[in-house]
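Form 7-S
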Amino acid sequence: MAAPNSQLPAVSGNPNIVPKKEDEEEQDAFAIERERLARECKAIEEKYLKEEAVRFKKYEADMRQELIETYFSDKDIFGDKIFEETGIDGIKAARYAGTESYADPIAYLQKKEAFAKSAANTSTDILLQNLS
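Output:
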């Protein structure tokens, strides 16, 4: 009667126990190591994504604050007040649109200077009329 796997040597005289090949053992070791590395990579990736989400939320909050301070404040691009007077019930009045200084700063300055010159001329004319 021949052993079941007559081509492979028997272990300890028992014909039913056949030793694993070294290649299979190495493949098993590589598979275990590959699974361990995959778990580590997944854990590192999850940690990175959580940190990235926190950084993004901080960046988003900072940008929101900067936009609110810039575009929804009562100052123009040069730091001057946009609103010239406050009317009934706290309603503020402005001569120019609040975004005009951001859209075209040069034209905004020219308009502002032209108005300042005309206002100065008007006030001196009124003073001269009162003195006469």
